[in-house]
Amino acid sequence: MSELIGRESAAREITILVGRQRLTTLIGAGGVGKTRLALDVAARLSSQFDDDVSVVQLAAVGSVGDALAVLPVGATSVDAFVDAVGASRALIVLDNCEHVIDEAREFVSEVLRRCPGVTILATSRQRLSLRGEAVRTVTPLALRPSAIRRSGWHEPSDAARLFLGRAGLVVPDDEVTDLDAVEDVCALLGGIPLAIELAAARLALLSVGELRARLRTSVRMLADARTADGVRQASLWNSIAWSYDLCSVEEQRVWRALSIFSAPLSLDDIESLIVEIVGGAVDPLELVSDLVDKSVLVRLGGRSSSFTLLESLKEYGRTQAEESSEIDAFQRLRLEWCRSLALRAEVNWMSDQQASLSAQLARSLPDLRLAVAWGVTHPDAIDSILDLLLAAWRPLVETQGRIADLLSWLDAVLARLRRPMGRAAVTAHIVHAYLTGMARGLDAARPRFALARGLADEIGYADAVVYAEAAEAILSPVEEAHVALLEDAIERGSSGEHGITVSGMRISLILVHDQLGHVGEADVLLSEWMRRSTLSGERNEQMFVLTGLAITAFLRRDMDRAADLASRALALAEGEDPSLAVSMNLETLAAVAEARGDRIGAARLLGVADEVARVVGGRDTVLEEVSIDRPRLEERLREELGTEGFARPYLDGADAARRDAFAATRVIAPAAPERRTHPLDGLTRRELEIHDLVAEGLTNAEIAQSLTVSMRTVEWHVQNILMKRGFTSRVQIVLWKRGAET
Question: Which pTM does this prediction carry?
Answer without folding.
Answer: 0.68
